[in-house]
Amino acid sequence: MNVVDEYTGHVEPGGDATRRTLDALTISKLSVGPMDNNAYLLVCRATNEALLIDAASDSERISDLIGHGPDRPALRTVVTTHQHPDHWQALGAVAGANGSYTAAHPADADPLPVPPDHLVEHGDTLSVGDCTLEVIHLRGHTPGSIALLYRDKERPHLFTGDSLFPGGVGKTNSAEDFTSLLDDVEQRVFAQLPDETWFYPGHGDDSTLGEQRPHLAEWRERGW
Q: What is the C-alpha to C-alpha distance for residues 180 and 151, in angstroms, rounded to an integer?
């Protein structure tokens, strides 16, 4: 697995991974599977413990990203952002191979192929070695969709699953679900976090809240 250290937020399906290095944490992004899903490997630099966000597909490529040598990080936790199958095809294989705990919101736990070891609610936290991730429940794409927030000293980093993308919120199946999701995204994300917050979606390229904030009213008016 080739890992590029010039992080832009863009990865190609089947291509290289890309890695961003923060003071306490590294973030590696990899595109996997036929739906161009993003898998994110977070590694605490002090402890070499790791957390994976969405073991979506291609367990062998995810394993290559983790590494195979004696200095590879210890994958302690695999978090599933929501219940849609394209986000957990490799969950059993990756968690089983690494002896990892699994985590998800209780409202999305039943469809998962591996019962979660940890059920997380809005406001809970998860640890990656010495680093802390905050759980944000964003209701609408699925009942139990979650985002994960890491507060670096330079800017916050937010992993949004399929709840927020550049250009809009995630797909919903009714007007009520759309309103619920956009309300949560506005109140729990945009109202709480600054423009420099960098967010990492479940598919495609990254963005910042500042780039997307001017379009919130437009998204609500168009209804998707």
A: 25
Q: In this structure, are residues 32 and 17 in contact, taking their beta carbons and an 8 Å threshold? A: no
Phi and psi of 85, rounded to 5°?
-60, -30
For 170-217, how does the pLDDT look when each residue is reduced to its tens digit (9 = 90+)? 999 999 999 999 999 999 999 999 999 999 999 999 999 999 999 999
Secondary structure of residue 38 in the 3-state scheme: strand
* Nearest residue to 74 (alpha-carbon basis) of 117, 128, 29: 128
Q: What is the pLDDT of residues 118-177, one digit of tens each?
A: 999 999 999 999 999 999 999 999 999 999 999 999 999 999 999 999 999 999 999 999
Q: How far apart are the C-alpha atoms of 73 and 156, rounded to whole Å?
A: 23
Q: pTM score, two decimals?
A: 0.98
> Minimal CA–CA distance to 73: which of 99, 51, 53?
51
d(C-alpha 25, C-alpha 126), whole Å: 14
99: which 2 tokens?
Answer: 């002896």
Residue 113 per-residue DSSP state = S
Q: From its phi and psi, is residue 68 left (phi > 0), alpha (psi between -120 and 50) or beta?
A: alpha
